[in-house]
UniProtKB/TrEMBL annotation:
<comment type="similarity">
    <text>Belongs to the oxygen-dependent FAD-linked oxidoreductase family.</text>
</comment>
<dbReference type="InterPro" id="IPR012951">
    <property type="entry name" value="BBE"/>
</dbReference>
<dbReference type="InterPro" id="IPR006311">
    <property type="entry name" value="TAT_signal"/>
</dbReference>
<dbReference type="InterPro" id="IPR016166">
    <property type="entry name" value="FAD-bd_PCMH"/>
</dbReference>
<feature type="domain" description="FAD-binding PCMH-type">
    <location>
        <begin position="77"/>
        <end position="246"/>
    </location>
</feature>
<keyword id="KW-0560">Oxidoreductase</keyword>
<keyword id="KW-0274">FAD</keyword>
<dbReference type="InterPro" id="IPR016169">
    <property type="entry name" value="FAD-bd_PCMH_sub2"/>
</dbReference>
<protein>
    <submittedName>
        <fullName>FAD-binding oxidoreductase</fullName>
    </submittedName>
</protein>
<dbReference type="InterPro" id="IPR016167">
    <property type="entry name" value="FAD-bd_PCMH_sub1"/>
</dbReference>
<keyword id="KW-0285">Flavoprotein</keyword>
<dbReference type="InterPro" id="IPR036318">
    <property type="entry name" value="FAD-bd_PCMH-like_sf"/>
</dbReference>
<dbReference type="InterPro" id="IPR006094">
    <property type="entry name" value="Oxid_FAD_bind_N"/>
</dbReference>
<dbReference type="InterPro" id="IPR050416">
    <property type="entry name" value="FAD-linked_Oxidoreductase"/>
</dbReference>
<dbReference type="Pfam" id="PF01565">
    <property type="entry name" value="FAD_binding_4"/>
</dbReference>
<dbReference type="Pfam" id="PF08031">
    <property type="entry name" value="BBE"/>
</dbReference>
Amino acid sequence: MSPVDRRTVLKAGGALAAVTLTSCSEVKPASAGPAGANLTAAGPDWTAFQKSVKGTVYRPGQPGYATVRQLFNPRWDAVAPAAVIRTANATDVRTAIQFARKNKLVSVPKSGGHSYVGASTVNNGLVVDVSAMRSMSYSGNVLTVGAGAKLYDVHAFLDKYGKSLPTGTCPTVGIAGLTLGGGMGVHTRAFGLTCDRIQSMGVITADGVARNVSATVDPDLFWALRGGGGGNLGIVTSFKLITIPAAKLGFFRLTWPESKAAAVIKGWQKFAQVAPITAWGNVHIDAKSNGTLQIHVLGCSTTGNGAAAAAQLESYVGSKATTRTFAVRTHMEAVKYLGGGTTSARQGWLAGSDVLKPMSANTIAALLGAMKTAARAKLPAAAILDPLGGQSAKIPSGGSSWGHRSAVGVVQWYSGLPAHPTAAQIKAAQTFITNGHRAVKPSSAGGYVNYVEAGRSVSTYYGANYARLQAVKKKYDPTNFFKNAYTIA
Ligand SMILES: Cc1cc2nc3c(=O)[nH]c(=O)nc-3n(C[C@H](O)[C@H](O)[C@H](O)COP(=O)(O)OP(=O)(O)OC[C@H]3O[C@@H](n4cnc5c(N)ncnc54)[C@H](O)[C@@H]3O)c2cc1C
């Protein structure tokens, strides 16, 4: 979700303090626990570890530790890793894995730190932070990028070559987390998911082996890493990604009154299924603190003609939008518009998702009912429906583990939270997400792994691909070294 979207949620929802429910069912961040950390008599030799790597090891109390342990969501600020290593290169990553194994430390990779559940940090364990590995080069239509690059930087770099990538919108999301879990955005229908653009990857597996996986080298791991989600199968150190043209986009923004909400969702659903792959649009249903719902569709066309795509959507909705705005934006104007600028401030939220098969009129009514309940409770909440289809419905060369190729789209249940929410605020947001899941259950094909959430069975992120993913996990990580509540087991 872009900052544009998140701003809308916060504006629509009104005061965060209005949340009133109690208690919380969230899974706590992983911990190395009593059997995890410092098992050797003298504990891990951190001095030797620092000497063995080119990057920097940050330990509690040392300068920089308080900053490097942070994730994007301040909710995880209390999580205290035994150390964070900011790796300088792939060899450091390998050394870190070997050190963690030797010292029985739970270890998690971190790139942009935007995990929805805090999966890129761990109490008492070792965070392998690849964010300093962000170098980029371009040749022959292929971007070579370090696993720590952030999305805005990737776009700004590629723009110099007249190139782009289909990615998500938040400027500070890490290329690794986004790509490994799929990667949806405005180019999804025209060019597929971010993971569909992977030509090869550098990855260090749990055995400490450095691999350069592709359709011909370790093809099973290559298949699994394209959609299997970050943190599961190894630590990716770099990607080779096949680029797309950095073309102008024709944007549209349409609004309808609440009375048209069901027709808009029904029309959007048809749009996602039959509109040309050049057209894209997502529906935002924002719960307002006065108990009403605000409906808009933000869309664009890679042809540059946003008006034509908007007219097509209106024809499926069966009524003209109340307000319409159009703008043609260059590649970088579009990146900044969608991302709300060149960077984004840390913020709190709780979210979940459902991957959608076609919804009946009853299911659409139930979805709107869940949103209305949130609005009446004055919860700062939104449902955002992103389309799939087009190129993303096609299995890329060599196949990939992303499990939902035939779905209509993904609904994200999003609730803005303060930086350090109370248990009652978390509970209220969780209740909203649970209500959303319940509403669309007849059409839910599972969840989107990049919107990973507490309480959802891991298998539901992968559909029919889960058994094969389990087999690949067993082959490359037989001791389950990369393990938390959200990993493939
Ligand atoms: C504000 C915001 C906007 C977003 N917008 C979009 C969007 O438009 N489209 C979309 O598809 N998604 C979007 N997302 C979801 C985003 O794709 C996921 O949260 C993604 O996992 C974040 O990646 P990261 O590298 O920033 O996070 P991290 O927290 O660093 O990593 C996420 C997961 O990947 C693992 N990981 C990190 N680095 C590596 C590595 N090098 N090798 C292996 N595993 C690794 C981590 O351990 C963790 O499990 C958004 C998220 C936020 C917070």
